[in-house]
Amino acid sequence: MFYLSGVDGQTCNRVIHTDRSICAFKGSSVDISCIYSSYESITDGFWFSPERYHQGQNSSQPEDLSEDSQYRGRVQILETERGRSTLRISDLRDSDSAQYLFKFKTPSFEWRSDLPGTTLTVTDPDLKVKVKVQVHSYSWSELQCYTSCRLPHGSSYIWYENGLKMAKKTLSSYSVYFGFASSYSCAVRGHEDFPSPPVCVTGQTCNRVIYTERSICALNGSSVDISCTYNGYKVSVKSKFWFSPERSHQGQNPSQPEDLSKDSQYRGRVQILETWRGHSTLRISDLRDSDSAQYLFTFKTTSFEWGSDLPGTTLTVTALQVQVITSTVHQAYTYAELKCRSSCSPAGVSYVWFKNNKKIIKEERPLYKDQFYPGDIISCALQGHENYSSPLIYALKFPVVSVSPSDEIMEGSSVTLTCSSDANPAANYTWYKTDGNQKLHPLAKERQLVFSSILVSDSGEYNCTAENELGKRTSDMISVDVKYSPKPPSVSASPSAEIEEGSSVTLTCSSDANPAADYTWYKENQTLFQGAEGSYHVTSISSEDSGIYYCKSRNQFGEINSTSLFVDVLYAPKPPSVSVSPSAEIEEGSSVTLTCSSDANPAANYTWYKEDEDSPKASGQIFTITDFRAEHSGSYSCGAKNKIGRQNSTFHQIVVTGAWTSRAAGITTAVVLAVILLSIFLLIRKKKSAKRSSEPGEPHSKQDLNQQLFRSQAYTLSYCRSKTELQSPPEELLYASVQFSKNQSDPLSSNIEDSVVYAEVQFNSAAPRSQMSATEDSTALYSTINKTRTQHESAAHHFY
């Protein structure tokens, strides 16, 4: 431990590392700590290793270890209290052996790094057993397991005797009654691969096996020697051989080691060499990856067999690898520096480089710089072992995209896109999807892009890029077309405003579907149209086309109906019809209701008119006259109107029962009376004239007198009829007839005093054609004319 003191008190800019050096085992964890202080507030502080930042791109600037890729996931920065920082490194490796320093910054100050920090040494456990023999008892000894490297706190130990593990022995010291033939070894639990060498309690003669190397790394195709020394206490060795626990466990008898010289896998490749007594060497040639294993030696005497719990020598067979140290990717090529390396880096050997299977004569170093184009193939080998070259590395080839499943992709199914590129070093992949602007959006940085339940929105164009240290390549676009059943259709009518009768109307049905849907139009469950186009066209729509419409969209994956669409066709009023209530005879003073009806959309407004009158009588569908009188009689019509058009009804004549009859009867009565009086006057005058003229001659006959009277009455009737027709309504007919009833045996005398003439006039009033009905009404007028009857003659006159 070392300190830096301030000139004035304890507050100054300084860093004090807790330990100058630390030794730790491979695979373990270590804490490297310091305390620091400053006059100002510290804005930044971090740990770094001078050895690491000298290898970086900017060797003059320290690199924060927490951002160093070599330490990724293995470094933690702990600050349990203000001014104290701890760097914790886990899973220690040989490459972690280095010096570590802490650095901080303030707004105006930066701690420099010229002073040394803490040096970490990562090593295998260098354990040793120290024997302390009791002075008063030569058969009692105390064994102590120790190491020059500081062990983790609370470490547990394992003890071995003659190669066999001793149970329940976990402390660093062990007291035992020993035998002169026994050897002892110890290991730290968790690091059993690195036990101490076996030691004899007294002297150097005891049963033991000591391996020359704990681990050996060799290249594919090369040869390796694995050696050990062994000894049997004052007894000759009866048998000895090398074996591999991994191979023995695969044999017919897993509990019995199998001599490698008899193993078929090693046949012709294994030699057992013993250059002197007590020293054995296992030589394996033409090494293969499968030869990577642990190898142990065992021997037997007549009364002893060496145990196999202690580890032997671990062999790792590896191949050369081409590592990309630096690279600069250009559009057409990549400039890179390559290194031929392996986990076993033998010293003092020459290398051979191959480019496109041709040997590069001038290069024998492990480093190689060049320009590499797509398709270039590079490898390396050790000189003399060209047949065991490294795996090929090459610039990226264009990636290929595959889709699974390869047939139609249904919405909701699982879909996997795979990007493949033949590349070494292995490529890193990125997936992209283009949008409508042809812009690429990164989706994932995986070789496979997986849709567990693909959506319609996932349809589109995809591609991937493959990138490694030797370049970057982009695949062709691949289209993902997600199929799905029709979505709920939308329906619309054009024009979307009011639809008038006779106009052209198009109903449109659209539904999102893949593949595109076929459409069927219905009107109230009646099929109208079916086809790939969703439009149903009506060139001249009529009122009968009003109703509820809907459509169905269908493809091979399903079908669905739309919501209903009501089509409301507007049209002008149809010719109105008029009805009268009551429909029988209409009496004066009664209530009369006229109703106008017309089919129209929208509903019509009604107006009532009377013939020969300019202004409307009323508005509304129903026109009621509560006290109907003679002056209300006449012809009525109605008009129906909406915003589309207008229609008028025909005139309908309405007449009060008896109105025309009474009027006609009064007129006729007056006329008849006048005619009768006139007839009587004429008859009397003529009779007087006849009397005067008959005095000198014979009187006229009775027949002549009657004929004259008939002619006079006929003339009177004709006059009366014409007069009545002029005064009657246009369609009313008046009929009149005169009948005379006389006694032939009674002659007409010259005196008319006792003669009586009866006249009867009947009027028939026909109902008008406008559904007005009227019953016939008869009015009889009677006139009595007295005349002198000589022979009881009488005449009766009847008018109909």
From TrEMBL:
Keywords tagged on the record: Membrane, Transmembrane, Transmembrane helix
Residue ranges of the TM segments: 664-684
Signal peptide range in chain numbering: none
Database matches in Gene3D superfamilies: Immunoglobulins
UniProt keyword Glycoprotein present: no
Domain called Ig-like: residue spans: 116-202, 399-479, 489-566, 576-657
Keyword NADP part of the UniProt annotation: no
Biological-process GO terms, alphabetical: cell-cell adhesion
GO cellular component labels: membrane
Protein name (database record): B-cell receptor CD22-like isoform X9
Gene name linked to the record: LOC117559470
